[in-house]
Amino acid sequence: MRTLDSPAVEVSVDSPERHDSIPSSTSNNGSTFHSGLGETKHLMERLNTAQVKVKRLQRLEAALVDFFMEVMDRSDNNVRADHATRSLEAESAFVRGKRKEQFLKKAEGDPISLLNALRTHLRLKFAEQEAQEAAAERRFLVETLTNQQKEQDTRDKFQQLELSCCQLKEQRQSLMHQMNRNEQQEEITALKEARDALIKAAQIQKPLDGVRAGGVTSASASGTSPSHSNGEFFGTPAENQTLRRAIRKYELKMAQTEAVNEERKREVQRLQQQLTGLRQSTQLQMYSRLEKESRHLRELADDLKKRLAESEADLLRTKGTLKERETHMQKMRDEYARLFNAVQKQKQPTHYSPSKLGRAATPTSNSEHPYVVEHYRSEAARVERESEALKLQIRRMMASEQLHKQKTRVLRAEKQNLIRERDQLRADLDRAKRHSTLQSIAMNRQQAQSTKEIRKMGFTSIPQDVKQLKERNAFLEERFRKSLQSNSALTTI
After folding, report:
1. Using CA atoms, how far apart are residues 340 and 386, in angstroms rounded to an integer?
2. Is residue 480 a contact partner of residue 288, using CB atoms and an 8 Å limit?
3. From CA 376, how far away is CA 23, in angstroms rounded?
4. Which segments show compositional bias classed as Polar residues (predicted)?
5. Count of C-beta atoms within a 10 Å radius of residue 289
6. Which of 146, 163, 353, 448 could bridge to 473 as Cys pair (CB 3.0-4.6 Å)?
């Protein structure tokens, strides 16, 4: 029995020898024989082309399997980065060959399944990476809010300590004033007691001097007024010197007290200026920190928008690929229907009964050209195999279509999740901005109120500074309000 690999020259050599033994009356069979030879050549050419295509398809499958194995190994080694080099060195060529054979058996001649598996693996990896990044961003936001709360608590404690310090300073000043007042009262009482003692001594000494002087002196002394007698008391040099010494001492103490009070006033003014500078620097630091946070949140929002756009573009690409697969599957179905119709036309009907001449000529033609009959039989078997392969490919394409539908549903669910996460992040951003702005405004108001109270208690004679502080607080509130409006406008855009 001859095979399909036998050259066409043998056909041209053997056919005349056998054709010479046949009578010349069978010219009809000769024409069919020549047409069969042309068909045989055409089928041989198609067979060679199909073999070349099969070899190319096998090389393509091998390359796809190698690429699939490399991607899987690299993705696994990225997860286990410590054992990357050792795992690549330890894997032998035999093990890789076995794995390659397993993947080829798993693909079953369909490289599209390998591509689908690779795409699914990469999407899962990307989704896992995005989930990790989103979790890290959420942790960063939580840590930022916690740090902000700690800073606010620290500021509140600092303000409470400042208020307590001011209260203690006021108490100290009141105690110093009270102590100075008590000392002054004690000195005044001591001076009064000394004066009373001197007056009593002068009054006791006065009658003795009158008795010694005699009657004339007593008469003249009795004729004098009481005011003149009182003037004699202050006219004594020792008494006047004592009183002058006490007055100088009292004036010296009063001057020292006034100097101490002036020094304390200057110290309070210096502390007030230092406190105002610290508050202004704190406000500037808070404003700069809020600007940095708003800039960072804008960057996060832009990043989320970019990711959402990339996911939408990926979804559109997937839809385009799915449409291409559907068109390709429709083309394959049309090709299968065309081949099936051609095979059905080539098959003889069951009710067909050849004529006597045909039945008489059939054994002779079969005996004359057995390789042609064998070729047609093999061609029919090949067409049946092709039809079975096409049926299998159609089933696989239908399965891949179902898989693509599932992937489309998964991508839609991922898109909805991303949209929800974006909305949640926008709401968190607006809430954080609103909270920080309200905290800054409340702190500014508390600072303004505390400044007003301290100024009222300590310095009632400085209305111009209070007015400037009010104007500055109003300016800062207006500035924060404008920044809040601009941030809200940006978020709505």
Report:
1. 10
2. no
3. 25
4. 22-34
5. 14
6. 448
**What is the distance, to the nearest Å, from the Cα of residue 408 to the centroid of all Cα atoms in its chain?**
26
Q: What residues have CB less than 8 Å from 182, skipping those under 6 apart?
A: none
DSSP letters spanning 20-42: HTS-TT-HHHHHHHHHHHHHHHH
Token reading at 59: 């090389």
Environment class of 146 (CB within 10 Å of its CB; exposed 0-12, middle 13-18, buried 19+): exposed
Identity at 58, one-letter amino acid code: Q
* CA angle in degrees (0–180, nearest 5) for 459-464-466: 65
Q: pLDDT of 291-338, one tens digit each?
A: 888 788 888 878 878 887 887 787 788 778 778 878 888 887 787 778
Query: For residue 454, what pLDDT is reported?
Result: 57
What's the CA gap between 127 and 311, in Å, rounded?
Answer: 11
Query: Does the model's pTM come out above 0.90?
Result: no
Q: What is the dihedral of CA 385, 386, 388, 390, to 10 degrees?
A: 170
Picking from 465, 372, 480, 430, the residue whose alpha carbon sits closest to that of residue 43 is 372
For residue 347, give the DSSP letter.
S
Residue 462: predicted pLDDT: 55
What residue segments make up the domains of the chain, in order of their start? Answer: 32-109, 110-345+373-492
Question: How far apart (Å, rounded) are the C-alpha atoms in residues 106 and 116?
Answer: 13
Task: State how far the Cα of 401 lies from the Cα of 395, in Å rounded to an integer.
Answer: 10
Categorise residue 109: left if φ over 0, alpha if ψ from -120 to 50, beta otherwise. left
Q: What is the pLDDT of residues 378-408, one digit of tens each?
A: 878 888 888 788 888 788 888 878 887 888 8
| Most confident listed range (29-33, 211-215, 228-232) | 29-33
Which residues have CB under 8 Å from 272's CB, separation 6+?
A: 454, 458, 459
